[in-house]
Specification:
By secondary structure, this protein is mainly beta. It contains 1 helix and 2 strands. It comes from Wenzhouxiangella sediminis.
Length: 66
C-alpha cells in the first residue's frame, strides 16, 4: 500500500485483467472514507476465547456456488 501511495481510506478500483485481480487508485478521486469504528473499537474486550480464533466457519453449499 505504501508503494502505491494508498492507505485504508483511499478510493480504489478493482478489476480483473488477464486472469489477475488488479487494485489501482481510483482516477480523479479525492474522497476520504470515514469509517464508523476504529480497529481498536472493534477489538475492545476481545480475548482468545471471545473471538473464537480456533474455530473455522464451514461455508454452506450456496456460498460455494453449489
Amino acid at each position: 500500500m505504501a508503494q502505491a501511495k494508498l492507505d485504508v481510506s483511499s478510493p480504489v478500483t478493482i478489476v480483473v485483467k488477464g486472469g489477475k485481480i488488479v487494485i489501482e487508485p481510483a482516477e480523479n478521486a479525492t474522497r476520504k472514507v470515514n469509517l464508523p469504528f476504529s480497529e481498536a473499537d472493534l477489538l475492545k474486550g476481545l480475548d482468545a476465547h471471545g473471538v473464537h480464533a480456533d474455530e473455522l466457519a464451514q461455508p454452506t453449499s450456496t456460498e460455494m456456488g453449489g
